[in-house]
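Weekly puzzle thread! Below is a chain. First person to post its structure in token form gets bragging rights.
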Amino acid sequence: MERKIRDLQLAEKVEKIAEKDVELAERVVKSLEDREARIFGLIALYNLTYNPEYLKSAVEAAETDDDLLLIVERSKIPLPEIAEMISSPYRRDIAYCTILEKTGDMNFSAKISDARLLSASLKRLAVKKIYPENLRIARMIPEPYYRAVALMELAEKENVDLREEIASAIAQVKNFTMRRRLEELLKKKY
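Winning reply:
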């Protein structure tokens, strides 16, 4: 356990080391025994140099879907080809959510089968975008709870009246407690 912690701490420093000396950083990564730390370090090197050999080594070191998901999450470049390698549908959906949020490319939303994951991802994406694109994205959110929350945030941020649309989304929320909470929030804001 101590070795794992030490390796992870070293892996976190790889990027700073690589900024000064890539070869030294590469030696540090090769010395890491913990698989997760090694993958973390290889992706840090890949993010800095964009050398595909580091990505290839990280993928070769990956033994689980969690390892592949780590690669997708840590990479600065979207890696849909790595997301496709993930066998667990849930983890693959998380990987595509990460890619969707990094790129803003709505084509990736079609690859996400879990409506809640997609909704949460679209909500985060909508908040990042500028008006009116953010409103268009918020309206695409499939889960009414997330759609209502996103619309409330956008109404406040952009100073637009979306009461009717928010009320409509709230009315579609099936969970009574969540619906009441949203209704109270709507009353406070308007």
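Puzzle host: Confirmed. Bonus trivia for everyone else. The mean pLDDT is 93.
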